[in-house]
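forwarding from the other thread:

> can someone predict this with zinc ion?

sure thing
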Amino acid sequence: MRIEPLGTGGYHPNEVRHTACFLLPELNIAFDAGTAAFRLSERLQSKELHLFLTHPHWDHIIGLTYLYVPMLLKQIETVHLYGNRHTLEAVKTYLFSEPTFAHMPDFQLVELDAIESRQLTIGTSTIHWQPLPSHPGGSMAYLVDDGTKRFAYVTDTYVDETYDDFIRGADLLIHECYFSDETSEWAEKTSHSYLTQVAELARRTEVGQLLLTHIDPRENSEAPWDLSHARTIHPNIDYARDLQTVQL
Ligand SMILES: [Zn+2]
Ligand SMILES: [Zn+2]
């Protein structure tokens, strides 16, 4: 399985990171449509895209508007857009509405609440999801299983134990880490995560590799904090970086 982080920043873009978007090019699957979504069309290996949204905060959906032109030009012919009802309603009502951006592209909307099993199959891969309640309005954790490797994507949440079982043993966990340990008091206030608690989560759930994303955008550096202490908790931790390629 190949994963391409296209946007690894927090709320707004900065000099080194765009906001959330992750592409699995072999599977035509992406997660979130932040400002990095402008990078999707030229990297897709198919004219069909399966795009899963975690929640409707602007840093995760604004890039849906960037798909308008590639769809008009038929560079992308079909976008299946997945999210819970609340997320899809927010996209329709607030993002694509007069006078901000009147025309919603012809997305095929899939409400995840309607699928009781909380899983669906795309090609030979299975996508699982679990709601994360701590963030304002909630967020959604995702896990992709291609039969050989398992990749989990978790963002916009305070770390708790409610999704330990969901991510347990994943080969790769990409998890948000908005705050360093020095600014950790902001994590619970804003329902985001900080470094040591994410490292401890990776250790207790025995994931193979942890990449940190949704980094505080005031940190204009690819590697803003020293990870040596975190690596004593779990040895395989690094920052996710825009435009890197991760091969599992
Ligand atoms: Zn966010
Ligand atoms: Zn958010």
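Residues 85-95 form the longest helix (11 residues). thats all i got for now
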